[in-house]
Automatic annotation (TrEMBL):
Keywords: NAD, Oxidoreductase
NCBIfam families: tartro_sem_red (TIGR01505)
Residue span, 6-phosphogluconate dehydrogenase NADP-binding domain: 6-165
Protein name: 2-hydroxy-3-oxopropionate reductase
Family the UniProt entry places it in: Belongs to the HIBADH-related family.
Pfam families membership: NAD_binding_11, NAD_binding_2
EC number: 1.1.1.60
Length: 296
């Protein structure tokens, strides 16, 4: 019999499915719930257990991991008679790995404490590839003791795992992460259009750029997307639009100016308004191409 904690996983999307499977590979007993039957079937095929409801998934769990798109979805699965807080056992640890507003995380931790449930906000960076390869960067907010308890489980999901401060801190750092990523993708996209219009061998140019100071994880991960115009979603524009809203709002609240970030947030919003919200965020290239006169 395994001595590892029993895990409930709520949210089996692009990120949640491979992450939950990595826990199963690490020996954890995982019971999952999501709205799509095919995702539940995938979990079962990987050795997990599909639950018929949130209540069924979390009832006996020692650790509950959530990975859903945004604050409204976190609130929907956490609160109410059918939600996590009403059905999880006292003493359970809730690890929310969604990317949401810092205030939503603070409010959730406070509400959960009244139910005897501990909470960590633990958003991630690394995209679908990082989730599959279990090399995510995980930024955590919460209590040190809860972080220490969760760390072995998080080490089955990621490579860089850091407690950033009290509740909400993980989400604040994730917002900063999304700011950096969006600006980086935008810069890469502009460089790609500039290089192509100049008649340079794009693959050769990106290879040498990535070997110098202009190199980045973004360029490493997204280079093939740019070269092949492959915008199959690893992280959708719709979600990055949501995240840019989080960071611009949070920055306004603390009095931080984000002039470049504000421009990129508008470019992301424009791309979404043009019907590209379901594409990977590397599709920012399409916006630059349109601005440069291409019919995309």
């Amino acid at each position: 019999m395994s001595t590892l904690p029993k895990v409930a996983w709520v949210g089996l999307g692009i990120m949640g499915s491979p992450m939950s499977e990595n826990l199963i590979k690490a020996g954890y007993q995982v019971t999952g719930f999501t709205l799509e039957q095919e995702k539940l079937d995938r979990l079962s095929a990987a050795g997990g257990t599909a639950a018929g409801s949130i209540a069924d998934a979390v009832r006996d769990a020692d650790v509950i991991v959530t990975m859903v798109p945004a604050s409204p979805q976190v609130e929907a699965i956490a609160y109410g008679p059918d939600g996590i807080l009403e059905n999880a056992k006292s003493g359970a640890l809730l690890v929310d790995m969604s990317s949401i507003t810092p205030q939503t995380s603070v409010d959730l931790a406070k509400a959960a404490k009244d139910k005897g449930i501990r909470v960590l906000d633990a958003p991630v960076s690394g995209g679908e590839a990082g989730a599959i390869e279990a090399v995510l960067s995980i930024m955590v907010g919460g209590e040190q003791a809860d972080f220490d308890e969760a760390k072995p489980l998080l080490e089955a999901l990621g490579k860089t795992i850091v407690l950033c401060g009290p509740h909400g801190s993980g989400q604040t750092v994730k917002a900063a992460n999304q700011l950096i990523v969006a600006v980086n993708i935008q810069a890469c996209a502009e460089a790609v259009v500039f290089l192509e219009k100049s008649g340079v061998d794009l693959k050769a140019a990106l290879d040498v750029l990535n070997g110098g100071l202009a190199g980045s994880t973004v360029l490493t991960r997204k280079k093939d997307n740019f070269l092949g115009r492959d915008f199959k979603p690893g992280f959708r524009i719709d979600l990055h639009h949501k995240d840019m809203g989080i960071v611009t709002d949070a920055a306004r609240n603390v009095g931080a100016a984000l002039p470049v970030g504000a421009v990129v947030a508008q470019l992301v919003a424009s791309l979404r308004a043009q019907g590209d919200g379901g594409l990977d965020h590397s599709a920012l290239l399409r916006a630059v191409e349109r601005l440069s006169g291409a019919q995309v």
